[in-house]
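Record type: ASSEMBLY
Status: queued
Input:
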Amino acid sequence: MKLFLLNLGRGSVVRAQLCPSATLITTRTSRSRANTWLMRLSLAYSILIASSIQLLARTTNGQTIDKEVVTIELQNDGLVAMVKKIEAQSTLRFIYLPEQLSRYGSVSLVKAKRTVRETLDLALVGTGVTYEQSGRYIVLRDRAETASNASALKESGLSASLVKGHVTDQDGQGIAGVNIVIKGTTTGTTTDKNGDYGILAESNDVLVFSFIGCKTVEVGVTSRTTVDMTLEADIATLGSVEVNAGYWTVDERKTTGSISTITSEEIGKQPVSNPLAALEGRMPGVYVQQTTGMPGGGINIQIRGRNSIRNAIGDNGNLPLYIIDGVPFSSTSFTSMTTTLTNLQGGNPLSSINPADIESIDVLKDADATAIYGSRGSNGVVLITTKRGKEGKPKFDFSASRGAGQIARKMKLMNGKQYLSMRREAFRNEGMWPIDSISQSSYSDLFAWDTTRSVDWQKELIGGTANYTNVQGSLSGGSRDIQFLLGGAVLKETTVFPVDYGNTKGSVNMHVNYDNPDNRLQASMSANYVVDDNNLPDQDLTTLVLLPPISPKIHNDDGSLNWDPSWPLGYNPFSKLKAIYKAKTNNLVANARIKYSLTRDLSIKTSFGFNSVQLTSQSITPIASMNPLQTNRAGYNFLYESDQKGWIIEPQIEYSKIIGSGIFTFLSGATFQSTSRTGQNIMAYGYTDDVLIENILSAPVLRVLNTSFVDYRYAAVFGRLNYDWKGKYIVNITGRRDGSSRFGVNNKFSNFGAVGAAWIFTDEVFFQDIKTISYGKLRSSYGITGNDQISDYGYLDTYSNSTYQYNSVPGLIPNKIANPNYSWERNKKFEAALELGFCENRVRFNTSYYMNRSSNQLVGYSLAPTAGFESVQSNRPATVQNTGLEFEIVTLNINKDAFVWSTGLNITVPRNKLISYPNLQGSSYATRLEVGQPLLISKMYTYTGVNPETGLYTFLDVDNSGTYTNADKRSVFVGQKMYGGIQNSISYKGFKIDFLVQFVQQTGYNYMQFVPTMPGSYAQNQPVAVLDRWQKTGDHTNTQKFQQLSGGDGSNAYSLAAQSDLAVESASFIRLKNISVSYTVPRSVIDPIHLRDLTVYIQAQNLFTITNYSGGDPESLNISTLGPIRLISGGIKFQL
Amino acid sequence: MAMRTFYKIMMIGLVLVSCDDFVDVSTPKNQIDTKGVFSSNETALSAISGVYAEMMTNGGFASGAYNSVTFLSSLSGDDLMSTFSDTEIKAFYTNSILPTNSLSADYLWSEPYKFIYYANSILDGLSTSTTLEDSVSRQIEGEAKFIRAFCNFYLVNLFGDVPIVKTTPFEINTALERSPKKDVYAEIITDLLDAEKLLSDSYEFSVQRVRPNKYAASALLARVYLYNSEWDKAEQYASAVIENSSLYSLADVSEVFKMDNTEAIWQLMPPDPWLLRESTVFILTYEPLNNVYLNPDLVASFDAEDSRLTTWIDSIKVDDKIYFFAYKYTDVDGAVTEYSTVLRLAEQYLIRAEARAHQNKISLSVDDLNVTRTRANAVLLDGADPSLDQAKLLDEIELERRREFFTEWGHRWLDLKRWQSKSDPTLTRADDVLPDFKGNLWQRTDVLYPIPNIQLQNDPNMVNSQNPGY
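Status: finished
Output:
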């Protein structure tokens, strides 16, 4: 159940629940940890502002006034006080006008146990007030008034009679929190958790039913005593959702910070295995890039640009903080094997999370939202909330889908004929053709191989079909007090390689919530356990697609591998399929929370989190993968084991109070976090038989290559002050003091904080008459966050064991260059944003501008090899600025006759700049960075064309030195200039189509960066693009002549070209990232078979791409790694 | 102001929960505080052992494996023919190494500097330690200086002018300039003279001859003086080794690379029988694809009776074609019987022969030269031959060095580079020999490998100091 504040007309605020059947807007219905806080807040608000009449309709389970017993003591109390006391002890609810009750003086009553009827009879003696019971409602009336003036009665509403009713959604479920107001008055009530309500109304009154996410309905009472209502979803009221801000939740209307959200519904439309992939193209300011199509492979996420100049796999200062149900999760991949670095592009920690278990992902972007995370928030925070149960009858949800995938984009490579003519032309260009018979043996491709062959290696190696299977089920439900969810899911995806490899993820999750505001105690517990079993070839076969198309046959006629000795790399590429990488990850994230309300205003809570990740990976090279001609073949198995355990305890105290016309909220807490990680790399070598190769104990040689022990401790105190004045002006101050074990003795602690403010100007009186703009908010924030994403122990000067002993003496070697003095990196963030809603919010427009400056850059400062180590942890005086504009427009285009079409567009224009770096020239970044330029540059030679005379590449010799040195290089931008997505959602009755088009304007390295040898060299295929080469004197082209001699002019020019701007080109693309088509079977059909919901669907990912990029996939931008997969799947889901 | 008060409140909270202690973590179990390392004899000796273990572990410049001076520099000279398709290895063979070549950058350049850092770190540690036994402290200091000189020797020979690293602070070491070759040699000589005084004159600190002693320092000094044409000193230090006949005597040809043989002055032991080393790299078991074999010209330079031809060279026949390969090291699997021999007595005889020839001590030189020939059963040089002048003798020494040291520690490559051309004194002997073998791939600037880009990129004082021709 989701609670939030709804601002109704002149400032009366009541509780409301999001319309459960609203479609386009997010329908998160999880019970957030802070909702009781909000509930109390909204209650306070109601009391404060709705001063004219108060109709509190509270939940009961229907007992009569004769059966319910209360213990009441009154000492000159007003009748209102009496009513409240009775309400507090019983399930009965009173309907009355407070002003009229207050006319009657005070009453006293001796403390005793009585039925409600007895209590009322005693208390109301002589007051002239009568009571009348109707179900769980007790209506109090003023007898005197009734007798005297009929018209006054009408005005006061006391001539009215009780109208009851039941409000449901389109599915027949009762909706709690629906607001019901008598038209033209401020008299109103809300429905209880079952959707029931009661109100005093005249027979000719009109009731207005309103609920966020639903269409407002007006209906006349027309002398009825029961008015039931079914509310329909209204897509126009967009964006009124509650967002998770980490330590609290907040109505999107009232956020002072920048937070983007996607929900399980959007995640569920995408057949992806890493939850981060589901964010692609959907959030402004968040750039997500799949760096490989390998299951479990790398995904880059960058929130508002690159803050740190440290950006390498394994040492990246630009990773966001991941929090799963309040438990911090590793930002870096758990494995440290070289296999993972190349094969999986470093991997990603969230690949050990199953997207099916996720309820929502909130991304915090600006200082206001992230400063509460202090030192960890500078690159944004990704909050993952897992699924939880909802109040209501137990229901069973099940979905299953299957799909097939292929590589999304192939490179255009030469065929056999083109390859051969290229090779021969290369020799001719060097005057070496025809080749004399003695030298012929050196060129097996031309003289030993079957030159009539033409193999498409992309097809052979990565042209297969990947299977995708996703099955998930959950049982959830609960009473008002306790809700639960038990779920399980299996996700299996195979690869496009010719042998069946794949990744299987199994997960179970549970969530139990106890929440009874009357009992002051709330508790919840969740656990999510994922077993991920990854089974891949040890090498990404995409690295081999440049084999010559005329290469020898893969298999001999008898089916065995062809070990022709002339294979260009010395081995049959299919032999690599026998070398495998296996990784098993067990990941448990568990969390428990307890909250106790000391008073109405003050509560304490504590959350406990635990995370355990165990990984065992093996990189196995069996004898079967080796050339049989090789003697002394022995299999080997590199084993990496790591075990990470972490816990976090966060005690907190919350206080809220009404001050003036506003609500003041204070939250303070502390964090104690500890993570320890142990790991070891073991080499098992010398296997003479493949059978036992997975068992390292069978290896003749067993070596522990290294061990690692890491303890990370982190402690902080944090606080938040929030003042919300009349729901119009909101100020939010957050701060945190952090201590981290990653810093040396004198630098362990640092302070961070932010101020955010919002003004909902459409709530101002002067704006009431402007109807076109239905919602308008200005907000801004400024603050400082930090970054402790550095390796541990950088300050410790230590030695550790060398891998081997020497002469029976254990070796000790220096670990690193220690630097005891480095301190915290600071990131100053500013944001200004405007949020607008037009035409009753049918059009929503958000725009924000941000400017972040990251200084005192903490880097693994690259050292020259003469320093003995590659890098040292050190602060650099560099200041990096990220500015950007984000736009988001959501429109409801059509909403008529069950036809609904809505569109969402988001665009981000990021700019990145190194604004200062004193003495850059004296640093090791001199050749990589330039002040005034983005970090995303590469220093390159300037290509000046192919010389029409010589046919060789030429470059600008800036200093006219006759040679090409670093002085001749200039900065070339390689990165994103703009990105975004357009999402459309169209539904008609049960049919629904959603599709997302992602667009990225960028530059990237083309094939020259990745193809190591020049066109024409030995045994390397080339893109067909190089056919546009220089052939004869006078030719004007951009590809130099084919040549094959290494070390000659040609290869020198080629290697310069690979370091020139010729190797960078536009890699912009437009991609149909996701499409989902579904059909929900009407209730009339499924009701008889006792189903509550039945939907069939087809989903696809990366369906087509428009790009001029000459390399492989424009997203992964690397021709030697597998690109993202194009996947189509179909499935069914139902609810029992 | 509000923020300040806010922090104050939080500070109080912080004190209450005493985060201070909470965020202190102890040194991880697999690490030892540097001060602790140099507080006991055992751990201090472990620190110096670590350097040799690392030299042999990573297949790098001192390991004898693919990325070693032994292999890569042999490719650059005329010892080997190559069929490697790997562009980076091939570049050494075609003398077209790029500044981006990762083998040159990681193994020939960065690794020696890493070991120099290790040595400097050990010297730092010793200087603050008060608890070590004097003899141990002296030995460790001597070894550290020896290691520094040894690494600098290969750096200066492969790359020309190189930065001299004498301390540990990274701020200094990452911003060095190249020092002239003569300064680097001066540094090497200072270190070796110190080491010669400090090191034990026996092998008491190692079980075998796997850690340098006083004579290893003398032997390397003799080589360094020879390379610097200081003939008298080269002769003096070579003699110092040769004259210690109780420790050193020439071994049988088949025993020269065995562990702990009488000829060995300093050997590096493979710390693990499965690590790659010379035997794995040079022995051919099938057609040499992606492999190397000996230059037939080298094989032809031996007298037929030369036992080095029959013992140190083997061959394989594929399709009627015979490929010769170096068979100095024969261990392929199982127990280790051979150690990578860095310094051996035979070299000292040939150093002295060359130094004496230059001093016109013809007959003494011939005697030294004939020592290795006698041992190999090769045709001896007649010292009484009146036609034997200095030039002819030096030719014979060149031939003998080629036959004795092929595929060992880049001897041939270093020799070709240090000897003057016979036709043009501005050129080197490599310019005489290699064009015939490498064709037009050979350029005179190829005598120096390029300074790796990673150095130029990260060292602001070397940005524009690439070697000529690159």
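Annotation: The CA atoms of residues 35 and 125 of chain B lie 7 Å apart.
Annotation: The longest strand of chain B covers residues 313-318.
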